[in-house]
Specification:
359 residues, alpha/beta, Rossmann fold, 15 helices, 13 strands, 17% strand
């Protein structure tokens, strides 16, 4: 089939987790024999941080505005067997209405931020999806599973809401025999609702372990934040540096946005990437985590500084390596980009043949 995707970004991973998700998914979808066109708004903050210049798996088109889309790419959308509009696309509501009006194939919304989307829909002010559009898209592909799918179907009227979790590319994330530089590390863009968990599970333990080294990587942290002397700050790492970054940590931290904790069943792409590197993960707790990993055997969970400190100071390197290896095996068995491409194909075919949504 011919698939057209209007997504936030595939050319730049700066400050977002969308690009790496799209790259792996689309590459594997193309391997199944499908043609893909990716339409991305050309914005300066991604233009200055592009880490993907050549993507042979899809035709990547940069457009300047909604008017540019309408005038120059309408036939691309009309001729597609399926069109996906992604979350956080600039002017996403207007673009979605345009796609829903002119598309002749399947229409889908791919929500890489589902719990945040639904929370903002209730609060008001969402710019990339209108409430009434959910019932108009043939398919709602959600980064969150569990009860969120019931909400999409029962409250918002989605005719078919299905999970399409993030994934990992095992060609780019794998174990490497590097000496660790940090006891604990974290990779993520600043988020005010995630910061308290980062404080509890890393920054407070760092103050109690002044002889150990910690690291926080990601953009947009406020300048007024105070960091302990043993917490290194890295503003940005390109995706091709993430694998080495994880392999330089004895443990890595996963913390989750508040809306995603409340919704449950909302794994982040960083969770899968770290696990694929066999780096043992310390995570905050949320519903559904135990459906992805065996707690205590494939992933570690901490709720407060004392539990994080206990993990960091009592688990031996041998035991930590066992946990990391087990986590990697779990991810490779269920959560690679190839798995997601097959799921996407199945969901699109399900719309064509009229399968009933299993909600």
């Amino acid at each position: 089939m011919k698939l057209v995707v209007l997504g936030l970004s595939i050319t730049s991973a700066w400050g977002n987790g969308h690009a790496t998700t799209y790259r792996g998914l689309i590459r594997e979808f193309a391997k199944l024999g499908h043609q893909v066109v990716f339409l991305e708004r050309d914005v300066p903050w991604y233009a200055s941080q592009r880490d993907l210049r050549d993507f042979a798996c899809a035709e990547v088109i940069l457009y300047q505005s909604v008017d540019d889309l309408r005038e120059n790419h309408a036939q691309t959308v009309r001729s597609a067997d399926a069109v996906i509009v992604g979350s956080y696309v600039p002017d996403g509501i207007e673009i979605g209405n345009w796609v829903l009006k002119i598309a002749t194939g399947i229409t889908a919304f791919y929500d890489i931020d589902t719990p945040v989307t639904l929370a903002q829909l209730e609060r008001g002010g969402l710019t990339y999806l209108a409430r009434e559009q959910i019932a108009r898209y043939d398919l709602y592909l959600s980064f969150a599973g569990g009860r969120t799918l019931e909400v999409l179907h029962n409250r918002y009227g989605s005719p078919r809401a299905v999970p399409l979790y993030c994934s990992v590319d095992p060609e780019h994330y794998f174990p490497s025999p590097l000496d660790p530089l940090w006891l604990l590390g974290y990779l993520g863009t600043y988020s005010a609702d995630r910061q308290p968990a980062l404080e509890r599970l890393m920054l407070e333990p760092a103050r109690h372990l002044p002889q150990e080294q910690f690291v926080v990587t990601g953009p947009q942290y406020p300048q007024e934040l105070l960091w302990a002397h043993n917490v290194e700050r890295i503003e940005h790492l390109a995706p091709d540096q993430h694998c080495e970054f994880y392999n330089r940590q004895r443990f890595t931290l996963n913390v989750t946005r508040a809306d995603m904790v409340a919704a449950g069943h909302s794994p982040s792409v960083r969770l899968f990437e770290a696990a694929a590197c066999a780096t043992p993960i310390i995570s905050d707790a949320w519903d559904g985590l135990d459906e992805l990993f065996i707690l205590g055997e494939e992933i570690l969970v901490a709720a407060d500084p004392s539990e994080a400190l206990e993990i960091l100071t009592t688990i031996s390197p041998t035991r930590a390596a066992q946990i990391g290896t087990a986590g990697r095996a779990r991810i490779l068995a269920n959560h690679t980009a190839a798995h997601r491409a097959l799921e996407l194909e199945h969901h699109l075919v399900g719309v064509v043949v009229g399968e009933v949504s299993l909600i």
